[in-house]
């Protein structure tokens, strides 16, 4: 049924929860003098980098981005694949599926983790927030993937953990699989085509294993 499986990156493939929360918290304190509790930063997942900076009124965006990046590097020991996800990516690739990433990060930011976690060559295409005029929750990123891979929306499924991911899929007319293993909110995912609690459930759906 599907030919392409497109994934969000943060909290879908990689568990970057602690690294990003700590990095943003420290960047806000250092550059903006703002003390923000980690629980009040959870909404950054699903937001673009620019949206996060706008939400907190960041003045020097270039310095903030660098501080955020440096912070994630400091906390990279907390980042890991979700259980079974790395193996699933290779199995899907070997089974003939085309794979992609659509992320709210910039393309360059996403490429760093793709290389760091040795996912080079797995994905047909990576689309970041800076690759389109209107990033998630708008449909532009998925529409771009569909167009540039010369496929149809019915042959694509998007896997993600955020409401912005779901809205992007719905607006693009693409089936959506909620990555329950990475969802950290109480948002309503009832419009999802599927809801999976573990990557093994996604594996069974796509590979019958």
TrEMBL record:
Entries under InterPro entries matching the protein: HAD-like_hydrolase_sf, HAD-like_sf, HAD-SF_hydro_IA, HAD_2, HAD_sf, PGP-like_dom2
Highest taxon, organism lineage: Bacteria
One Gene Ontology term, aspect cellular component: cytosol
Transmembrane portions of the chain: none
Keywords: Hydrolase
MF terms (GO), sorted A to Z: phosphoglycolate phosphatase activity
Pfam families recorded: HAD_2 (PF13419)
The keyword Hydrolase is assigned to this record: yes
BP GO annotations: DNA repair
Protein name: HAD hydrolase, family IA, variant 1
